[in-house]
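Hypothesis: this fold can be encoded by more than one sequence.
Test: take the structure tokens below, design a sequence, compare later.
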């Protein structure tokens, strides 16, 4: 969980033609599958896609990440670029000690949406309580499940022949035989 403090400020609401004063607010944020699901249901685009997000979309994602109850909607107007950088650093944090070799990480061309992540959770028997985990930690767990459930790679013909030759040599050495 990340906590950020948004300073109070004075805004002008053009629709109501009045000034609005916001108080400083401390927000608790969670970058989770649940947050992404809320955001995608509003914007109808994949959050994890390569498409650049507008400032409005980023602010709205911070709104979806907020677990603090009863936040004044005008508070989000006070989010500065510095606060966005803090939130972005939190979003990109791996949140786990698990690492993968380059061979196991292949970029996929598949567009990942919240529904595909939920599908992977059901496929691997991951409980739905994990939808509230930091997304990177959940994605690492899914990747681990995928790697552990992947079929073992078959050896090519040359490797099989080499392995058999070594085993035969060991057996001959143990038994004192020549062939």
């Amino acid at each position: 969980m990340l906590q950020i403090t948004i300073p109070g400020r004075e805004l002008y609401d053009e629709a109501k033609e009045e000034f609005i004063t916001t108080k400083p607010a401390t927000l608790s944020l969670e970058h989770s599958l649940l947050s992404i699901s809320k955001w995608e249901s509003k914007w109808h685009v994949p959050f994890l896609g390569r498409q650049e997000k507008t400032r409005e979309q980023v602010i709205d994602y911070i709104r979806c990440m907020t677990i603090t109850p009863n936040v004044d909607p005008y508070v989000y107007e006070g989010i500065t670029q510095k606060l966005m950088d803090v939130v972005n650093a939190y979003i990109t944090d791996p949140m786990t000690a698990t690492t993968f070799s380059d061979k196991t990480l292949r970029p996929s061309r598949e567009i990942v949406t919240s529904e595909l992540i939920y599908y992977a959770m059901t496929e691997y028997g991951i409980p739905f309580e994990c939808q509230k985990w930091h997304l990177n930690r959940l994605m690492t767990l899914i990747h681990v499940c995928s790697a552990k459930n992947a079929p073992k790679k078959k050896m090519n013909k040359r490797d099989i022949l080499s392995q058999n030759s070594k085993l035969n040599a060991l057996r001959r050495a143990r038994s004192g035989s020549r062939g």
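The mean pLDDT is 90. The radius of gyration is 26 Å.
Hypothesis status: open.
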